[in-house]
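Extended Data, panel c. Modelled sequence:
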Amino acid sequence: MDSHAGILDLLKQQGEQALKKSRRALIIQPGAIGDCILTLPLAKFIIDHLKVGAVDMLGRADYISYFPGRTCIDTIRAIDSVALHRLFSSSADFHLTDRDALIDAFAGYLWIVTFLGRNGSDFEQNLIFTTNCSQGADVITLPLLPDSPDRDHIADFYIRRLCETCGLKLAGENSLPTSELLIKSTKSDKKAGEEILQQAGLDTDSALVVLCPGSGAADKCWHLDNFLSIAGQLKSNGAEPLVLLGPAEVERFIPHRLIDISRTASFLADLSLTQVLQVLCVADAYVGNDSGITHLAAAMGLDTIALFGPTDPAAYRPLGPNVCIIEDKPPAFTSQPSHDLQQRVMIKLQEICA
């Protein structure tokens, strides 16, 4: 009897696991790199509290391609692979055909959380209608930003709004992960990062500090001379500074500023997001503005110094176990170097690299 009971328990567990795996959720996230990373706690919350087996994400492929296998996101799809523009039509004029691709795109999901559209909008109504043409799904529309100033962290705001819509109660006041990694790199990531550094001729025996002077908005960028000063001090201390530049920075910085960077430190430009992740795998510390790459570094657990000017770190600080926030107020943040802030950054870096 005991052996039979054990077999029945095992079959029951397997059945429950299979049922959970078949329960899937989708997040439609059209935002930038940082927005996508700050949605990961929401995805984890959905898995834990809505009892789904997997969460997929529909977003900009170049921003989320590295998620599967490194985060709680199971699969990703490119947002331009689905004709989402059709859902913005007037609900009175919206129609679907037999075997419509839109129906297939959302079939099989029990929950769909969308950051596109608004509550009660044509987009939301058309999305609900589309899901009802298959098995139906609970559609929850969340805003990318609060309607009014909100001192809660934006990731906590998403979870709270989800709970309010679903009638769930939070177990505690703060549901955000404080010590766990949102993004877990792999052994192959580290190997690839080492190869990138070797090809760039960087000293892999010294402490590597990645400096990222860019951001999606110019007013979020700490004055470039601050980064150059820190790079020079790091080299004097025997560390290896590495400046990462994206396409926006290559265009934004005038040629002589790029020359200043190259004279002060090694730099890499136009890496893919996956390659940036791989470089961060082998770094000892990171310094950057309020940007998507700073959120990436923090979420990976890298010792991260995040520089904040016009944006509020209470609401938008990077999530990770090793994040230090350093603030300054505009316009000085972008308009002139700050010796005091440089020294604060260097003191923290010396602690990290000691």
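Residues 15 and 255 are 62 Å apart (CA to CA). This feature is highlighted in the accompanying rendering.
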